[in-house]
Design goal:
The complex is a heterodimer of chains A (210) and B (734). Chain A is an alpha+beta fold. Chain A has 2 domains: 172 residues, Alpha-Beta Plaits; 31 residues, no CATH class. Chain A is 15% helix and 20% strand. Chain A has 6 helices and 8 strands, in the order βαββααββααβαββ. In chain A, strands 6-1-8-7 form a 4-stranded mixed beta sheet. With 734 residues, chain B is an alpha/beta fold. Chain B has 4 domains: 78 residues, Phosphorylase Kinase, domain 1 (2-Layer Sandwich); 226 residues, Rossmann fold (3-Layer(aba) Sandwich); 190 residues, Dimethylsulfoxide Reductase, domain 2; 113 residues, Barwin-like endoglucanases (Beta Barrel), CATH 2.40.40.20. In chain B, 29% of the residues lie in helices and 17% in strands. In chain B, helix 8 packs antiparallel against helix 11, helix 8 packs across helix 12 and helix 16 packs across helix 18. Chain B is globular. The two termini of chain B are 35 Å apart. Classes of the chains: A alpha+beta (210), B alpha/beta (734).
Chain lengths: 210, 734
């Protein structure tokens, strides 16, 4: 049982509507039933409803595993970084602190690090992860690269990230708009009379319409 | 007197809402379900397909139904956690009788005894005061079979004219406008027509939170090059990346769409052939909108003139488009005009009745469409027939085996029924699938009215805030405990399948209704043995009507993942897209695509009127209300599901920093908002995503957290929808 190579996971924050369907569905996954491993956060709610879902990026060289003093975190041959192995995990929290994406969670109740394992019970038998199955906006997508390139020509998948001097290559892709611009506006920007222009916001985004 | 038998907190302790969370088999990863049932979500009008996992007559979880084409496994958080409403500690498993001497205000009684008491009370009230002294309130989350049965029960069994339903708070403005303009009330196009529309207009729809899976269709249209125009006083998640965002001042939608039409005319962005051949009334509308210059439109709507021009330019020059609207423009004392003003710009563009040329309203309730078609509205008979029409009465009287004159005349809308209860004209009430104490505006009045009833009975699965007032509560059925059809947002008739049996003494709602009829000794036409038998009669009752279901069968639905009405015969494939040249139309009979004898659509002058209660010096801030993604309507179900409550535990007041600064309000501060009818104190959420002249409060909560303590009971004169979306309030730091 392993995750088929042609299926990939794509995160497309541009589409996220913050509904938390992924959070709800994550706790239905059989590998960590009752516990939601996905993170979903507002970027800056005072000025935007933008939210971003964060699943485990499943790094080629996982920092979490590299810093683990108990060698409890394993990456299977299909590229999935698994939850810490219970007999080995010493709940030291190193992985939680080290992960550049902020993914692992320390479940104090079990003295165990738990994290997204891409619904290994489902994906390893050819099904789709719970979060990417239910996501009603397509912000989380699980399928082939051909499918996503055909369906979403405005964005491109990226799987290399730089944190300081560390370059990380991941199994999970982020969809990045090919022509991105500033998206946050104050309602007053589109109102009659009352335009205000707080720092960092466009006075009127509609200038961008081509 | 249907006042509360005990203090609210005593009732809540006993009957909830308590929070249900995953436990037992729901957390067991090794368990094999006895069966997996293909059905649909119990909540909104999208009616996403879902598979329920059943073990030992309990729903223990779900699996995405990837093969159902509308949502392909997608669900919102309500759909994901919907199964937690089953096996719930608050579930009513016996009948209850009001008993102020008991610790909980009610005592369990035998089901048969409860039915006898309900029948005796109906008999007493009707023999003392006349048949119309007993009324019925129903709902659009019921299956279409049950909705049909409720209309028949009121007219044939109770012989009362007073029946109405909670779709009055939902679909009626769109329905009335659709009937005036097109002669038929249904989304004109399937949702697949969103995908390649060049322009998608979303007016007054918080799509991402209230119809979440429609988001994917809209985003896909954008991937395909489409532009999105959003009309809303708030930047909701669907508006965040809009190409044009029009933050309309609540209550000014007519002005906005008239202004856009004026720019279309000025720039000759019109389909003259379509207007000439397929419509009537354009000249009068064109004359009327002359006054809506961009400058005046901007002044009235509070939207930048430049943005209005950009929207008109995009809309005017598009080759294809999909215009959708929802409660944001419909919940107004001029809700019908708001809808008509959007239909006018659709007709002027000629973009309807073809692939990717589309118009539709986003229904709210699970059966918001089907529940408004077959006779539980106060003025309607099955098949969208009119209770005032002699021929329609004769046809339905024939189906029901009664004389036409025995069918009562039209009654009144549900809010007017509350006024009639308050005035002492309606003395007894049966309520199902409706929580008016939370969902109706100015709910202090509703509470007072309910308290005046001589007898009140409620059929429900939980003791809702309304059911707390009942003399007798009858345990009905949850969505997964019965079968039947619903019509989802596209007018697609789909099948709800039974997953489990009702627990304890609870029964399927249609059995409860028929048990009351039997106890009354009025069994004529109320002896169905299965939902299928009800459906088969409904098919005949709808035959020849506009909402024709005659050709739809359970088998055909299952085989085709749903059938869109009208479907006049068993060999007819149904009608996913209305107004196509060759589509079946019993009114025009070939004269044209629209449902009038001449086959032509109607332009209607939509005159601007301000809201019933505008702001003034005393109440200077606009209040608008709506939903959040994790709750549904009055919350009877969703306020009992732990993970959904965790997501957004209580209502907050959304307020722009500019307005907040004026009152010294910081994020998280307690703020009191007060209208002429009531007040509410909640935490502030200070955000730049709302107009500075407007505050927003979601309405899912009861009692002192209820937004409907403040809202106004002003209603549209035609549709009778209440004006939830705008009233005047004042605010202060609490």
């Amino acid at each position: 049982m392993s995750v088929p190579a042609q299926f990939e996971f794509f995160v497309d924050p541009n589409r996220c509507i913050g509904c938390q369907s992924c959070v709800a569905a994550c706790s239905e996954c059989d590998t960590h039933k009752g516990h939601s491993m996905i993170h979903l956060q507002y970027v800056q709610r005072p000025i935007s409803v933008q939210t971003v879902p964060v699943v485990c990026m499943h790094c080629d060289s996982p920092t979490c595993a590299e810093v683990c003093p108990a060698d409890a975190i394993k990456r299977t041959d299909d590229g999935v970084v698994q939850t810490a192995r219970k007999p080995r995990c010493i709940a030291c929290n190193n992985c939680v602190l080290a992960c550049p994406f902020g993914v692992p969670k320390m479940e104090v109740e079990y003295s165990l690090m738990m994290k997204c394992d891409m619904c290994y019970d489902r994906t390893s038998v050819g099904s789709k992860p719970m979060c990417a199955s239910v996501c009603p906006s397509g912000a989380l997508y699980y399928g082939t690269r051909q499918e996503i390139e055909r369906a979403r020509p405005r964005s491109e998948p990226v799987n290399q990230f730089r944190f300081g001097n560390q370059l990380i290559t991941t199994k999970v892709n982020m969809m990045v708009p090919r022509d991105s611009g500033i998206q946050h506006i104050d309602v007053t920007a589109a109102m009659h009379e009352e335009a205000v222009n707080p720092a960092g916001m466009l006075e009127n985004v509609f200038d961008e319409i081509g | 007197m249907a006042t509360l038998p005990k203090e609210q907190d005593v009732l809540i302790d006993a009957y909830g809402p308590h929070l249900n969370r995953m436990e037992g088999l729901q957390l067991d990863t090794g368990v094999q379900p006895d069966k997996v049932v293909n059905t649909h979500c119990c909540f909104c009008g999208q009616q996403c397909g879902i598979q329920l996992k059943v073990k030992d007559n309990a729903v223990i979880g779900f699996e995405p139904w990837y093969a159902f084409p509308f949502n392909k496994g997608m669900l919102c958080p309500k759909g994901v956690k919907r199964y937690l409403q089953g096996s719930h500690p608050d579930r009513l498993v016996t009948a209850l009788e009001r008993d102020p001497s008991s610790d909980t205000g009610f005592r369990p009684i035998a089901y048969d005894e409860a039915i006898r008491k309900v029948a005796a009370a109906i008999e007493r009230i009707q023999s003392t005061y006349g048949p119309n002294a007993f009324g019925v309130l129903s709902g659009a989350s019921l299956t279409t079979e049950k909705a049909y049965l409720m209309g028949k029960f009121a007219r044939v069994c109770l012989k009362t004219k007073y029946i109405d339903y909670n779709g009055r708070l939902c679909m009626v403005s769109a329905g009335a406008a659709n009937k005036k303009a097109f002669g038929i009330d249904r989304a004109a196009n399937p949702w697949s027509d969103i995908l390649n529309a060049e322009v998608v207009v979303i007016a007054g729809s918080n799509t991402a939170e209230c119809a979440p899976i429609t988001t994917n269709y809209v985003w896909q249209a954008r991937e395909n090059g489409g532009k999105v125009i959003v009309v809303d006083p708030r930047i909701t998640p669907i508006a965040r990346t809009a190409d044009v965002f029009l933050p309309v001042k609540p209550g000014r939608d007519v002005a906005l769409f008239n202004g856009i039409l004026q720019l279309m005319i000025e720039n000759d962005w019109l389909d003259h052939d379509f207007i000439e051949n397929h419509t009537v009334g354009f000249e009068a509308v064109a004359e009327h909108v002359k006054q809506w210059t961009p400058k005046r439109t901007a002044e009235v709507t509070g939207v930048a003139e430049k943005s209005i021009r950009q929207a008109a330019e995009l809309w005017g020059q598009a080759k294809t488009s999909f215009l959708m609207h929802a409660r944001g423009i419909e919940h107004h004392s001029h809700g019908v005009e708001n809808c008509l003003s959007t239909i006018n710009i659709v007709l002027a563009s000629g973009r309807i009745g073809r692939e990717f040329c589309a118009y539709g309203t986003v229904v709210g309730q699970g059966n918001g469409q089907g529940g408004r078609e077959h006779g539980q509205k106060c003025d309607q008979l099955p098949g969208w027939r009119d209770i005032g029409n002699t021929a329609h009465r004769e046809y339905i009287a024939g189906v029901w085996g009664v004389k036409p004159e025995e069918i009562p005349e039209a009654g009144v809308d549900c809010y007017e029924m509350m006024r009639k209860i308050d005035a002492g004209e309606i003395k007894g009430l049966l309520n199902i699938c409706f929580n008016p104490k939370v969902s109706l505006p100015d709910n202090a009045f509703v509470t007072r009215a309910l308290g005046k009833l001589e007898f009140f009975t409620v059929i429900d699965f939980f003791l809702s805030e309304t059911a707390q007032h009942a003399d007798i509560v009858l345990p009905g059925s949850l969505h997964e405990e019965d079968e039947g059809v619903v019509a989802q947002v596209e007018g697609r008739v789909i099948k709800i399948n039974k997953a489990v049996d009702p627990p304890g003494d609870a029964k399927e709602d249609w059995r409860v209704i028929q048990d009351i009829a039997a106890a009354l000794g009025r069994t004529h036409g109320m002896t169905f043995n299965t939902p299928r038998e009800i459906f088969d009669e409904l098919r005949v009752a709808s035959k020849g009507g506009v909402a024709d279901y005659f050709g739809i069968t359970y088998e055909k639905i299952e085989a085709n993942n749903g059938i869109c009405w009208p479907c006049p015969s068993e060999d007819h494939p149904g009608t996913p897209r209305l107004f196509e040249p060759d589509s079946w139309n019993p009114i025009a009979k070939g004269a044209g695509p629209f449902y009038f004898p001449d086959g032509k659509a109607r332009f209607n002058v939509a005159a601007y009127r301000p809201p019933a209660e505008d702001v003034d010096e005393e109440y200077p801030v606009i209040l608008t209300t709506g939903r959040v993604v994790s709750q549904f309507l009055s919350g009877t179900q969703t306020r009992r599901i732990g993970p959904l409550v965790d997501q957004y535990p209580e209502p907050r007041i959304e307020i722009h920093p500019k307005l907040a600064a004026k009152y010294g309000i910081a994020d998280g501060d307690l703020v009191t908002a007060e209208s002429r009818r009531g007040d509410v104190t909640l935490k502030a959420q200070v955000v730049t995503t709302i107009r500075p002249d407007t505050i927003f409060i979601p309405y899912h909560w009861p009692g002192r957290k209820s937004a409907n303590q403040l809202t106004i009971a002003a209603q549209d004169p035609v549709s009778k929808i209440p004006e939830y979306k705008v009233c005047a309030v004042r605010i202060r730091k609490a």
